[in-house]
Amino acid sequence: MLTADKRPTQRYEQVVTEIDHCSDAEEQPVDLDTNHNITHLPSPLPLVENEDLFSTAPNLKSHNDNDLEYISTDVALERIGMGAFQIRILIASGLCFAADAMQVILLSFLSLVVQDLWSLSNDLTAMITSSLFAGSMLGTLILGPLADSWGRRPVFMLASSIISFFGFATSAATNYGMLTATIFGVGVGVGGLTVPFDILAEFLPSSQRGTNLLKIEYFWTIGCLFVVGIAYMTLRGEVPHWRLFVATCSVPCLVSLVLGYCWVPESAQWLCAEGRTDEALEILRHAAALNGLEKDEVFPSNTKLLQDEDEKDASLADLFTPKWRETTLRLWGAWGSFAFGYYGTLLAITKVFAEAETINRVAVGDEEPYSFDYGAIFASSTAELVGTTMVIFAVDRIGRIPSQVFSYLIAGLSVCALCVFASWGFPRYALIGLSFIARIFEMAATCVTWVSTAEILTTEVRSTGHSTANAMARLGAIFCPYLVQGSASLTQIGIVMLLVHFFTAFCVSTLPETKGKGMGAVSEDQPVDSAINRLNLLPLETNDCNEDDLVIQGELS
Q: What superkingdom heads the lineage (predicted)?
C-alpha cells in the first residue's frame, strides 16, 4: 500500500490528471481512506508496493525538511568539482598507467641489447616483445572482469603488484627462457591498466571529464622519456648495465602501488551499481572535504545516492547481447589495429635511429657494442607531450570521432614516409621531423580512443568492455614485433603501417560520438525521464504521448 504521508488530496489529483491526459484513458477517481492512504489508482498508473514512493524521486521534494534527497553520482561529482581528491588519483593512476609505455620502450632497447649479448635470431628477439603483449592479452581477460565483480581498487592494487614484482624479476633473468617468462608476467599486470584509467574517469565530473581525463596521458609520455633517459645512463659504454636499466624502470609502478593504497578509494559509481550507496556517499563526502568544500553543506545529512545501474557482475557474454554487440565489435576492430600501429611506430622509430652496423658486431677495443641515437629518440618522444596538449584543446571542441579519424590518418602517412625515406637515405633532420609528426598524431589519436571507449561503455560493463578491447589491442600488438623487428624491409614496414592506420580510422568513424554526454549515456535511449522509470510510475511504452505531457506541473508538498 502507498502511504501518502498526509499530503493534500488535490496534489494527487493533479498527478492523476497529468497522466490521464497523456494516455487519453477514461478518468478514474483516486480513493483515499481517512488516513490518506491510497486504496485505488487509475489506469495506466500501476499498483506499486512501495511505502515512500514519492519521496524516492530525486527531483521531487516533500514539505518535511527531514525527508531524503536522492541524487545520482553524476550530480554528486558535479557538486564536489575538480580538486585535490582527483589530482591524487591522477598521480597514482598515472604512474601505473605509464608502466605500459615504459615496458614497450624498455623492450625496444633491451631486445636489441640481449640479441647481441646472447646471439639471438630475429625471430627470438621479436618474441621477447611479443611475450609482453601475450601476457597483456591474458591479463586483460582476467583482470577486467574482476574489476567489474571485485571492484576497481583491489584490481588496481593487484595489477600494480604484478608489474612491480615481475619487473624486478626481469632484471634478475639469467637466460632467454627466464627473461621471456618474467616479461610475460609483467604483461599480465599491464593487462589491468585499463582499471586505473577507468577509476579516474569515474571520479571526474562530466563537465570536466574530457579535458582532465586526457591529462593521464602525460604520464604515458613522461614514462617514455624516463626510459630513454635511463637507457642513456645505463646502456652506453663497453659493458651495458641492462639489469640496472630494467630494475630502475620498475620503480615508478612500485611508487604507484604505495600511492594507490593511500590515495585511491573504491569507485563511487561502481559501489552505486552494486547497491552500496552509503559507502559511495561516504567516499564522496571525503572527496568534497579534500577539495576544500564543507562536506555537510555539499551533502546534507538527508542526502542519498541513487543506484545507477540495474545490472551487476558483467561477463564477456554481456558484451554480445543485442545492446552491446555492434559496439563491441567496432571497439575491438579499432583497438586491435590502433595498438599494432602505435607500438609498431615506437619500434620502427627505434629501429630507424639505431646504428645497426655497431649493434650487430662484436665490440673491439673502446668501441661501443650498442649505439642508439638517444637524442633523436628522445626528441621524437617529446612529441607526445605536444600531441596530448593538442588533443586536450581539440577533443571538447571538434568531438571525439573527428579527432581520432584525422589523427590516425596523419600518423599513418607520417610513419610510412619515415620508413620509406629512411630506406632511401634521407638526412637525419628530415627523419627526426617525420618521427616527431608521427608521434604527435599517434598520441593524439590513441588518447581520444581511450577516453571515447570509457565514455561509450556503461558502469556495469565498463571494465569488462574496456579490458576486452585492450585484449584485442594486445593481440594486434603481438604481431607488430615480427613485422618491425623481423626481416621485413623499412619500405615494407611503412606500407603495412599505412594500411593499418587507414583501417583504424575507418573503425573509429563507426563509433558513436560522446562529446557532451554522460558516462555511458550514448547507450541509453529512454523515452521518459529515468527517475520516473525507476519509480515505475509510467510504462516505457508511451504510445502517442507527447513527452511534454508527462511533466508533472507543480511540486508534491
A: Eukaryota
